[in-house]
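hi!! sorry for the late reply, been swamped w classes. u asked for the two structures so here they r. pasted raw, havent cleaned anything up. first the sequence of the first protein and right below it the C-alpha cells
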Amino acid sequence: MKIINFLVYQVLSNETIFLGLIALIGLLLQKKKFPQVIDGTVKTIIGLTVLSSGAGILISSLSPVVTKLNQTLHVRGVLPTNDAVFGVVLRFGTIAKNTVITFLLAFFLHLLLVRLARHQVFKNAYLTAHLMLYHAAFMNVTLPIVLKTNSFWTIVVGTILNAAYYTYSPAITRILARPWMHDVSTLGFMDQVGSIIAHFIGKWFGSAKPEQDADNMKLPKWASMFRDNTIVLFFLMPIIFIGIGLAVGQKGIQTLAGTGAGSTNWIIWLILEGFTFTAGIVVLLQGVRMFINSIVPAFKGISDKFLPGAIPALDAPTIFPYSPMGGMFGFLGSTVGCILVTIATIVFHSPVIVFPSPIIMYFDGNVMGVFGNKAGGWRGAIAAGLVTGIISSAAVILFYPLTGAVYGSGLTWSNIDYAVVWMPIMYLLKLVRGVIVGF
C-alpha cells in the first residue's frame, strides 16, 4: 500500500512528473539519442515547472485581497479557484483517496476509449493531469449529494462521466481550431464545450474579416505598444486590484500591507500586487513556450506506438500564442463580466457572493478570446470573454451548494464547462434520482 500510495499520490497525480514521464517514454520509443532524450525530458519538466510557478504567482497575489473583501462585507463569498478548492478536498481522507482512484480509473478508461475510437477527431489524449485530478475531486464531493451514492458507486459513476468527457470534449476544440492549429494539439482545460459559445458569440458580435482580427489591428503608433501582453497587464491589473481594494477599504488592505513605521501605503501595495500578477503571467507564458516545444514532439512516440494518430489535449496557455491580442481582449471582456456578477450578487443580496476569479478572468478569458477572435475579430473576442465570464461566475451560485464537503469553505471550482456542462448534468441527475425514488 505504501508503494501504491507513493506511485499514485506522489508520481502519477503530479502533473510535472506525469508529463515528464510522458516525454521520456515518447522520446525513448522514438529511439532518440541520449542527449535528445535528456533535452526533451528536462525542458518538458522545467517548462511545466515554470508554467506552474507563474500560475502560483497569479493566485497568491489575488487571493489575499479577495479573502479580505469576503471578511469585510460579511457575506458567504466564494472564490472559484480550482487549485485552492482541491487543497480543501485533500483534508478529507476518504474523499481524497476516492478522488485519486477515480482519477486513475478515468484516465485509463479514457486511453482505452481513444484507442478504440474509429473517427480520427476523437483520437485526443487528455494530458492535463492536474485538472483531471481536480475534476475527480469535484465528482467525489458532488455525486454523494446529488445521487446519495456510497464510495463505490461514486467512483464508478465519476469514472465513466470523466472518461467520456476527457475523450469526446477535446474533439470540439479540435474541429473549431483545425484551420489555425492544424491538428498539432487540441485543448484539454475544462473549456472545450464553452469554446462553442465563444465561437458563435464571436460570429454574432463581430466579423472574421482579416482587418477585424485583433492581431492585425492597425493601432496608432502610441498604442502599438499594447500589442504586448505585458504592457496591457502592467496598466490593467493595478486598476483591478485598486477597485477590489476600494471595496475592502483602507483599513482592511493596510492590514495586508503591514502596519507600523516603514509599512507600505495601501494604494502602493495594491499597485505592487498588480505588478506581481503581471509578472506571474510573464513567467507562465515563458514556461508555456518551453513546455510546448518539448512535449508535442515527445508525445509523437507514444501516439505512434499505442495511440496511432492521436494528438495531445493540453492546458489553456498552449492556446494563447495562436492569438495573443484576441486572448487579451477576451481577458478584458471576462474581467468585466466577472466583476458585473460580483456587483449583482451583492446588490441583489444573493445567498452566494461570487468574487472575481483569476482562473475565469485570465485563463478562461484568454481561451474564449482566442476562439472569439478567430470567429469574429476583436469585437468577437471581447463579447466572447464578457458573455462566458458572466455565465461562469453566475453558475457558481447554483452549483456551489451541491459541493458537499467543501460547501462553506469559500472556495469552489471554476472554468466555463463547470457552468455549461457539469452544473446542468448534476441537476439532471438529481432530478432523475428524485423521480426514481418517488416511484
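now the second protein. again sequence first, C-alpha cells right under
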Amino acid sequence: MKKQNLKKGEILIYKSRGTPKLEVRLENETVWLTQKQMAILFYKGISTINEHIKNIYKEGELNPETTIRKFRIVQKEGKRQIEREIDFYNLDVIISVGYRVKSIQGTQFRIWATKTLKEHLIKGYTINEERLLQAENKLNDLQSAITFLQEKSKQSLLQGQEQEILNLLTNYSNTLSLLEQYDKEKLILAKKRKDKFVLNYDEVKKIINKIKQELIAKKEASELFGKEIDNKLKGILGNIYQSFDGKELYSSLEEKAAHLLYFIIKDHPFVDGNKRIGSFLFVYFLNKNNYLYRQNGEKKINDNTLTTLALLTAISNPQEKDKIIKIITNILAI
C-alpha cells in the first residue's frame, strides 16, 4: 500500500495489493471517495458499501451533513461525456467503512489505518508537547522579566526612569507575542544575526581615549576616565569572542552586544567611566554591524532606554545576569 504526501488541491494516487489504483480527491484538508471507489478499495460490492454507510449514519457514528459532499465530475456513458454531481464521502466515513467490511483488502486497510493513526497521535502529541514547553518557557521568561523590572524600578538610582522601564517591558513582551503565535502555530525563536565587525582591542583603546579627551574638554571627565585596570578590557573582549570546540560561546550579534554592555558595567575594567564607556561601545558595536537602526530608521535602543539598561545592569545582582541579557537581546531582535 503506497501513499504520497498530501498537498491541498492535489489528487492522491492510492494503491493496495491486488486492487486498481485510485485517484483520491483532496479538498478541505481531507480526502473524498465515492461509494464506487470504496467498493474498489475494499473489494466489495457497491450495495455492501452503501449498507455500511447507512448503518454508520443510522447509529449516529457520523453526521452526513459534515461528511458528504457533492462534486461535479465528467463520466463517459456510452459515447457521450456526461457531467454529473456525485456524492463523495470524507476520510471519517472511509475509515468507518474500512473497519466494518470483511475482506482481505479491508484487513489491509485496517492495519494501515491503525498504524498511521497511532503514528499521528504519538508524533502529534510530541510536537504539541514541545510547543507547550516552548510556550511555558517563554511565559516564564516574561514573568521573570516583569518581576525583575518591577523590583528594580523601586531603586532610588532609577527614580525618574519609570516610563523607560515600562517601555522596556512593553518591548520585551511584544517580542514574545505568545498567544497569537501559539494559536497560529508560529511559535518561533527570535532570529539571531551574525556579526561581521570585530572589536579590536587596540582600536577600542584609541576610541576610548578620543572620548576621554572630548569629555575632559567639556569638563565632564578626569584623567582617571577610561584608565584600564590590569588588562581587564582586553579580557572582556576575549570573553566575548571566546569559543569552545570550534563554536563561539556567544554566537549571535545580539548576544555579543548584550554581554559587551554587561561585562564592562559589571566587571569595572576602568577606574572611572564604566557605564558611559560600556554604553558607547555597545552602540558603536551595533552601528558598525549595521544593526543600530530598524528598517523605519528608528533606533533599536534610544538614549533614554540605553541609560535605563545601563543603570539596571549596574544595580543588578550577578545571579540576575541572564535576565539582563535576555531583555537586551530580545529588544535588539525586534
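hope this helps!! also noticed smth abt the second:
Residues 188-332 form a domain with the Four Helix Bundle (Hemerythrin (Met), subunit A) fold (CATH 1.20.120.1870).
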